[in-house]
Design brief:
This protein has helices at residues 45-57, 114-128, and strands spanning 2-5, 11-14, 16-21, 35-41, 63-66, 73-79, 85-92, 105-112. With 130 residues, it is α+β, with helices and mostly antiparallel strands. The chain has two helices and eight strands; from the N terminus they run E-E-E-E-H-E-E-E-E-H. The chain has one domain (2-128): Transcriptional Co-activator pc4, Chain A (Roll), CATH 2.30.31. 22% of the residues lie in helices and 37% in strands. A hairpin with a 5-residue loop joins strand 1 and strand 2 (11-14). The two termini are 17 Å apart.
Length: 130
């Protein structure tokens, strides 16, 4: 995190964030403010998420629990007892302005494979150069 002094001696901080669009609507047709924020500096949350998943796939940890600094979702990945991995995502509206005002949060649970998680991590690193 970069810090700079202001004229009155206070310090302020720069945070570099990346906006991730949460739908497949072309940018010019978006109604606005439906993005999600991940911090990239001083701590790269995208790289952290990829690293956490990789560590789990390498057997260094048994689960991933991830929530970004600007909380709008929580992601939990665990080894399933029978098959592959269980992924649970909890989404909340946070401060987002969307076309849907009747929900506060929603969760989704799914199962996936090691190969899918590895592919996701690889794509994440490519898309965000981390």
């Amino acid at each position: 995190m970069d810090t700079n002094d202001t004229s009155d001696g206070d310090k302020y901080r720069y945070l570099e964030v990346v906006q991730i669009r949460t739908n497949n609507v072309p940018k010019e047709e978006e109604p606005g403010n439906e993005e999600c924020l991940f911090c990239r500096k001083p701590k790269d949350e995208v790289a952290d998420l990829a690293t956490l998943i990789e560590q789990m796939l390498e057997g260094k940890t048994t689960e991933v629990l991830f929530e970004p600094a600007e909380p709008f979702f929580e992601l939990k990945i665990t080894k399933a007892h029978v098959f592959g991995y269980k992924v649970e995502a909890w989404l909340d509206s946070g401060n987002a302005i969307t076309g849907v005002y009747r929900w506060d949060g929603v969760g989704i649970r799914m199962h996936t494979t090691r190969e899918n998680l590895a592919s996701f991590t690889k794509q994440l690193r490519q898309d965000f150069d981390c």
